[in-house]
Amino acid sequence: MKLNNIAHSIVFFSYLLISYIHIKIEILFICIYYSNKYTIISTNAIIKMTTDWLVRIGDGDNFIMSSKYKIWGVQSKTADNKYFIKHVVPGDRLWFVKNKSQGKVIAVATYRSHNTRDLGPLISTTMTNEELGWTNDGPDWTSDIEIHYTDLYNLNNCELLTHIKSAKTIRKYNEKCKVELPVEYNYIVKYSKVISEL
C-alpha cells in the first residue's frame, strides 16, 4: 500500500511539475509575442519620426519674396520631387539651400501641406508667380506644386554649410551632409525666434 501511495504521489507531483513548466512556457511565449509587438510599434514610431529635407532654392531671391506667404514652389516631374511629394508629412523640416554657396542653408521651416497650382488662362485659384514675387530668372517659374510651411527661421547669418554637391532639387538629409541638421535644429529653436518673412 505504501508503495502505491508513494507511486501515486510521484505521479501527482510530476503532473503538477509538468503543468507548472507548461504554464511558464506559455507565459514566456506571451512575453515574447508582446515584446515583438511593442518592438514593431517602436519601429513604426521610428519610421514616423521627423524627416529633414534639403530644398534647393536657386539664388534665394524668389524664396525670399514669397516667404511672407509661407509658400515655395517645386516641379512635380522629377523622380526626386515625386518622392518628396509622396513621402513628406506635416511636421517634417525643410532646410532651404542656396545654389553655388557650398550648400549654405538660409532658412528652415516646418512642412504643413502642398497642393497643385491652379493657374488658369482666365482665373487662377492659387497665387500667380507675379503675386508671389517670383521672377522668370528663378528655378521655380514653372513650378506646378505649392509647398506650404510654418515656423520659419532665418539662418542666413549662421553659416550652415552642408557642402551638398548633388543637383537634386529636393533630397532627404543623410550622413553626407556636413552639418548635423537635427542637432542644429534644437539649438535654432532654443536660441532663435520664428519670423514672419525673410
**In which range does the helix fraction lie?**
25-40%
**What kind of sheet is the major sheet?**
7 strands, mixed
User: Beta-strand level of the residues, as a percent range?
Assistant: 15-25%
State the name of the first-level CATH class of the largest domain: Alpha Beta
Counted beta strands? 7
Number of helices: 5
Radius of gyration, rounded? Answer: 29 Å
Please indicate the count of domains.
2
Reported CATH architecture of the largest domain:
Roll
In the CATH hierarchy, the third-tier topology of the largest domain is known as ph1033 like fold
The geometry reads as: globular
List the uncertain runs: 27-47
Distance between the termini: 98 Å
**How do the SSEs run, as a string of H and E?**
HEHEHEEHEEEH
Mean pLDDT: 81
Task: Summarize this structure as a short list of keywords or feature phrases.
single chain, alpha+beta, ph1033 like fold, 2 domains, seven-stranded mixed beta sheet
What does the model show?
The protein has 198 residues and is an alpha+beta fold. It has helices spanning 2-47, 61-66, 79-87, 129-132, 181-191, and strands at residues 52-56, 71-74, 93-97, 104-116, 145-154, 160-161, 170-172. The protein folds into two domains: 1-49; 52-191, ph1033 like fold (Roll).
Write a short abstract of this structure.
The protein has 198 residues and is an alpha+beta fold. The chain has helices spanning 2-47, 61-66, 79-87, 129-132, 181-191; strands at 52-56, 71-74, 93-97, 104-116, 145-154, 160-161, 170-172.
